[in-house]
């Protein structure tokens, strides 16, 4: 939510390119003459990344499966529509993307002995698997073996925000999916402990479904639709690429956080920004085109998310997270958030999508009908 650390922006000289970039990014009055002098609009994103709160500064304490980890091993930095974000358990970029052009890729790190592996919802994990791998599996249900994080909002360092509040935005999604944080993000407030309860539901497809046309079954199998940027098809990834093409068609440019197949793409300057905002708004307001182009996936998983929050108590929190011992109670109330993500139960609902009636069933029914119609006659009438 916070787009820049106030102390870092304070180091910029007024009317410098860096200063005016921050003014423009925060919807504040900016010097257009200075902005006109910027030749490559990748530069503003470099500025924003340099002044953003890092994952190391945001995440103070992390445990998963009852084991403490270095937070920067569990969470990877990623540039999204909300700015610099930190993602947990996403598919490694090597497996997630193909043919991408994005200048702002980040080095990824993992816990000791953990290796990134390929994974898809339809085909599962690669085979064979190393002993320790990422994306990691949940080892059970309940808070004890879930993911727990202590976060620092750094409220005194807020320069500008993407919303009218102070806190964090989160999104729960599958490892291969590109989330839309701005539109679908959930809020976590500071000064509170939040229990984030997850209840997955899964849709899987019977093999007989492949005998039906796409129009009849209204879904796609993984190998049936190849995307340009993403290695694996999902409805969300397809819509992401569709909207990117709309932006390029209407404005001739894209924002720097967008991943694209084009190596020579043009980043939107402040002059094209109104076009981007208009095209982005229209593509989301009337999404019939992308909705028709992108069918749901035959294999899918979604999460029902319930968030329950209560006021933090610094004394109690010190027991599990000694890192806050030197912080005042006032600072904890204003800046610290605790989030505990957990599965509600080890088993979850899975629905099989299958043809209500297929060719074999039709033949059997037709043969039964012929036999019955020959044996059951009342006068000139046949019982049907």
Which terms summarize this structure?
disordered C terminus, single chain, 15 helices, 17 strands, 7-stranded mixed sheet, 384 residues, alpha+beta
Topology:
Elements (H helix, E strand, L loop, with lengths): L5 H4 L7 H9 L6 H5 L6 H9 L3 H4 E6 L2 E3 L1 H4 E6 L2 E6 L4 H4 L18 E2 L2 E2 L3 E2 L7 E2 L12 E6 L15 E3 L10 H4 L1 E3 L3 E14 L8 H4 L17 H17 L21 H13 L2 H6 L6 E12 L2 H7 L8 H7 E8 L5 E5 L5 H17 L1 E2 L2 E2 L2
Parallel strand pairs: 5-8, 12-14, 12-15
Antiparallel strand pairs: 1-2, 1-9, 3-4, 6-7, 9-14, 10-11, 12-13, 16-17
Short description:
This protein is of the alpha+beta class and 384 residues long.
Explain this structure to me?
With 384 residues, this protein is an alpha+beta fold. It contains 15 helices and 17 strands. Strand 16 and strand 17 form a beta hairpin. The N and C termini lie far apart (66 Å).
Q: How many helices does DSSP assign?
A: 15
Which strand-content bin applies to the residues?
15-25%
Q: Give the % helix.
A: 25-40%
Termini distance? 66 Å
Q: Quick one: overall form?
A: globular
How would a textbook summarize the main sheet? Answer: 7 strands, mixed
- pLDDT average, as an integer? 87
Helix-and-strand structural type: alpha+beta
CA-atom Rg in angstroms:
26 Å
Number of strands: 17
Spans with pLDDT under 50 lasting ≥5 residues?
368-384
């Amino acid at each position: 939510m916070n787009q820049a650390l106030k102390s870092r922006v304070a180091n910029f000289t007024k009317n410098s390119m860096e200063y005016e970039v921050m003014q423009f990014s925060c919807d504040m009055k900016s010097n257009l003459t200075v902005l006109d002098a910027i030749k490559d609009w990748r530069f503003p994103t470099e500025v924003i990344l340099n002044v953003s709160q890092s994952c190391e500064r945001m995440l103070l304490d992390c445990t998963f499966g009852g084991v403490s980890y270095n937070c920067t091993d569990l969470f990877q930095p990623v540039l999204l529509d909300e700015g610099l974000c930190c993602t947990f358990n996403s598919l490694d970029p090597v497996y997630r993307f193909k043919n991408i052009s994005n200048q702002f890729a980040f080095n990824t790190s993992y816990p000791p002995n953990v290796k990134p592996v390929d994974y898809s919802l339809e085909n599962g994990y690669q085979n064979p698997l190393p002993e320790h791998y990422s994306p990691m599996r949940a080892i059970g249900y309940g808070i004890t073996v879930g993911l727990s994080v202590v976060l620092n909002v750094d409220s005194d360092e807020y320069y500008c925000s993407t919303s009218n509040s102070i806190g964090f935005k989160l999104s729960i999604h599958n490892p291969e999916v590109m989330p839309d944080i701005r539109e679908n993000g959930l809020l976590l407030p500071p000064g509170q402990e939040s229990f984030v309860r997850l209840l997955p539901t899964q849709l899987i497809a019977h093999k007989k479904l492949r005998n039906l046309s796409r129009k009849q079954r209204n879904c796609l199998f993984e190998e049936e639709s190849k995307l340009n940027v993403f290695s694996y098809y999902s409805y969300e990834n397809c819509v992401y690429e569709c909207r990117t093409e709309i932006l390029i068609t209407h404005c001739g440019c894209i924002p720097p956080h967008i991943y694209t197949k084009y190596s020579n793409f043009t980043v939107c300057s402040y002059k094209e920004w109104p076009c981007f905002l208009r095209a982005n708004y229209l593509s989301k307001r009337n999404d019939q085109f992308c909705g028709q182009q992108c069918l749901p996936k035959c294999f899918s998983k979604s999460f029902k998310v319930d968030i329950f929050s209560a006021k933090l108590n610094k004394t109690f929190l010190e027991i599990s997270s000694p890192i806050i011992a030197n912080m005042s109670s006032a600072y904890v109330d204003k800046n610290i958030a605790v989030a505990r993500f957990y599965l509600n139960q080890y088993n979850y609902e899975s629905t099989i999508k299958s043809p209500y009636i297929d060719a074999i069933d039709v033949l059997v029914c037709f043969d039964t009908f012929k036999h019955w119609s020959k044996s059951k006659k009342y006068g000139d009438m046949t019982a049907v």
